[in-house]
Amino acid sequence: MGKLIKPAGYKPLLDTRQTEQGIKLIKEFFQQNLSTELRLRRVTAPLFVLRGLGINDDLNGVERAVTFPIRDMGDAVAEVVHSLAKWKRLSLAEYGIEPGYGIYTDMNAIRADEELDNLHSLYVDQWDWEAVITAGQRTAAHLRSVVERIYAAVRRTEYLACETYPQLKPFLPEKITFIHSEELLRMFPDKSPREREDAICREHGAVFVIGIGGKLADGRPHDGRAPDYDDWSTVAEDGRRGLNGDILIWYPVLGRPVELSSMGIRVDAEALLRQLALAGQEDRRNLYFHRKLLSGELPLSIGGGIGQSRLCMLMLHKAHIGEIQASIWPDAMRRECAAHGMPLI
To answer: Phi and psi dihedrals of 155, rounded to 5?
Structure first.
């Protein structure tokens, strides 16, 4: 169990009925805005995929997928998805989506190895989205443009929530700040990656950290990323390495940054081979997804995931994600949360 943050004097600003209504309002409004901003159409997504196809997201490479045998398929093993990073790209090809357009879906996952705290649950719900791009859009400039459009949708959602419930006061800055993970290391050489994020987010309020997955000047990555979806190794037009990153929001209720989205321009064939080699996973070239990518059957794309419960948590000023979603929590955490004004669903 992770360390629980217990904000002094915390009291929910919305009662149970208002909270449930607010969740519905935020989810419906934001996904429509996201769809409009990025020209995405909604598609239906799987809860599980077959093991061994290379379709499931490996996250940091150590998390175990929840699995079960399928009786009618000779006990072939299915895995509950961690996310849909690679499935979406296969779907772009299947649907024949043109450059400038894309798809989004409701992604539901179970992450059994998650360390449970105010922000992390066994149950993960997010809007997974993916859009087709051209070779000329595999740039840091295009990445920033997409991030700004997503952030604009987030701010409009905050405005709606505060207009609907006047007891909520806006806290998001007008603009999101961009910074490369290498620059963060240079600014705060004696801090850990999480401490660097804390410092930069406290100062700017909303930050997109670029270049997550590859080794920095100190020989360590800012954070782990699988080698076969985000492109964290290509040198962009600004001379920095990496075409991906995280949207981080400084959250006054908890006094810490919250990762709202992990996203990026996806690997092309060249970047995939390079990153598999760097990760020591070159044997993955023979998996179904990887073969299709290397043979040119999949479009170039940009995509990511945006946490649904996390967005609702921030917009409704809740202190624990368990106030937004129904999940399983240790009895000790439930008791502690109840004692500090955080009633878990």
So the answer is: -65, -40
Q: DSSP readout, 109-171?
A: EE-TT---SSS--SEEEEEEEEEE--GGG-SHHHHHHHHHHHHHHHHHHHHHHHHHSTT----
Rounded to 5°, the CA angle 153-155-159 comes to: 115
Per-residue pLDDT of 54-87, as tens digits, reads: 777 765 555 778 889 999 999 999 988 887 888 9
Q: Could you give the percent of the chain with pLDDT greater than 90? A: 86
Buried b (16+ CB within 10 A) or exposed e, 21-49: ebbebbbebbbebbbebbebeebebeebb
Backbone angles phi, psi at 247, to 5 degrees: -90, 120
- Length of the chain equals 345
Q: Which residues are catalytic?
A: 57, 111, 126, 246, 259, 262
> Coil, strand or helix: which one is 92?
helix
CB atoms within 10 A of CB 142: 17
Q: 141 to each of 102, 151, 256, how far by Cα in Å?
A: 19, 15, 28
In 32-101, DSSP assigns E strands to: 40-42, 48-50, 67-70, 76-80
DSSP 110-124: E-TT---SSS--SEE
Q: Are 172 and 158 in contact (CB under 8 A)?
A: yes
* DSSP symbols for 281-322: -GGGGGSHHHHHHHTT-S--EEEEEEEHHHHHHHHTT-S-GG
